[in-house]
Amino acid sequence: MKKRKRLFLQSMLMLLVFVSMVFTNVSGAGAEASAAGGPGKPVPPGKNGLDSQGRMVANFGSPVIDGNVDKVWSKAQAVSPPHGSEKVEATATFKALWDDRALYILAEVKDKHLSVKSGTPYMQDSVELFLDENNDKTQEYGLDDLHFRVNYENAQSVDNGQSERFYTAAKKVDGGYVIESRIAFKTKPEDGKVLGIELQINDAKESERIGTLNLFDSTGSAWNDTRKFGEIVLSGKSKGSVNGVSPYDLLILIKSTLKMDFTLYKNPGVVTDALMNVIASNVLNDKQATQQQIDEQVAVIKNAIGKLEMTEEAANEKYFKAVPDEYRMESNRPGTIETLTYKAPNLTNGMDDKKLHVYLPNGYDPSDTNKKYNVLYLMHGGGENEDLIFGGPGQSKELKKILDNMIAKGDIEPLIVVTPTTYGGKNDPALFHEELINNIVPLVETKYHTYAKSASLDDLKASRAHRAFGGFSMGSVTTWYTFIHNLDYFKYYMPLSGDSWVLGQGGGASKAKETAEYLAKVAKDAGYKPQDYYIFSATGNLDIAYPNLKPQIEAMKQLTDSFIYSSDTKKGNFYFIVGEGGTHAWNWVNQYIYDILPDLFQ
Ligand code: FER
Prior knowledge:
This is Carbohydrate-binding domain-containing protein. The protein is of the alpha/beta class. It contains 14 helices and 20 strands. The protein folds into 3 domains: 2-22 and 249-315, no CATH class; 36-235, Immunoglobulin-like, CATH 2.60.40; 325-599, Alpha/Beta hydrolase fold, catalytic domain (Rossmann fold, 3-Layer(aba) Sandwich). Strands 1, 2, 3, 4, 5, 6, 7, 8, 9, 10, 11 and 12 form a 12-stranded mixed beta sheet that branches. Strands 13-14-16-15-17-18-19-20 form an 8-stranded mixed beta sheet, with helices on both faces. A hairpin with a 4-residue loop joins strand 6 and strand 7 (156-160). The radius of gyration is 26 Å and the shape is globular. The chain starts with a helix and ends in a 6-residue tail after the last helix. The relative contact order is 0.09. Residues 27-40 have low confidence and may be disordered.
């Protein structure tokens, strides 16, 4: 082994030993802080520990997040979740504290049967935290809204928000478990501030969730509606209150840095050097360490990560990139949503009335016949419908904002995005390709300025390089069918979190090789070369579809005369993004779309 490589591995090993020591015994810094926490006014008495307005109350104090319930928690009032589904066997109490950097939630759960058997995080015995930091009670999750989960083995999952704001410790105790969690504030808090919050216990038995316990939401829909949250008021900070020194941002950063795959980089040493610097600085072991010293080490590591350079081989892989916050904000150059109605043949020789929505980019001018637009057709998942992605005219849901911003910043050319539904008509993802090419594409592409000269099949074929189809879950299943049946009319495919069911449900896993061969044969038989079609796929490693999609993708990678794997669309026609922590949810899917859009229509 080369000397440099051996040195590198040695230093990584030292770091691992060091960090695991720190993690089992979080630095004294926090412990000092808890003792020095503010005096705190007594919590106003009310029903179930809530205040007179029915709000949870967080007192000022900085607990150590290590799974041990330290003294500072006695300053917090316990509340019990009153909303429980019938079969729930668990009981729980929650407490809250806050300081200048974070909100702390303690959950003490009594539950005799603990299970993490399900592969679906919310079906494991776990605690869910929902936060609406600016308490604006938007229905849809906005930039300030978080939805985190952690199970009794301290495995975290993130449905909304950045994982680096979440630090937890879990401990099994007699008859149940304890979760201590810390959510870093995005906006500096102050005494008297009111935030939106919901707290939930998932009670699992074997691989099922038998029910939930909820503090405020009795409808079970806080996961997609922040209006269902209750409130928490920050109190108890007085003049003498001292904020605890907080090592958590540094700990989270070290942990995520150690998880990085250093083989992807030419110069991993810049990061190991930075990590060694943290050890040398001793801030994590030093009870006297100041917040400034800790924050400096955070900056050192972040700066080093910024200097990493990928190897050429690694650059072939397409990596998940989160949607930046500014892309989730309302653009000052918004597009518009229109609704079209049409008739489509059903299974009983009749016609169904159906509708779809069309996103028109900012600046789209019906009278300008010179300008032409590419079109992306985008399909919802099972049980959803044509309203899911854009709502309707006048609405500005997450993906619309992302599209508006990407176009406004010049990341992508202005395009048209169409959201139909597989429900109604022949009511079947396997048959949708007929309605798609006979009804939907002609309707859309003769009404709007697209590259289709007319609705004739010849003209639709001639314009295939300007047409893409994508979808989520069942919409991804539909996308693979579109590839199989409509390859003549679509050049770009974006199957997200769903495998091909052409050889049966879940065929991407049970018949991975055969499915890949089937898809390759479709293209070959139709006379297409790899540069004539592009497949950009994505899912998350925690997505329920991952075990179905991943084997199919791996099998496709083997068929190198049909599917050439590369993040570089000049070299290949196929890639697969895996979002670390990604679940089967639109918040993730919209990010995959953000990552893939710049590669469509190239
Ligand atoms: C998958 C493809 C589709 C998958 C699930 C679906 C679990 C959709 C299911 C549904 O909507 O009922 O690979 O994996």
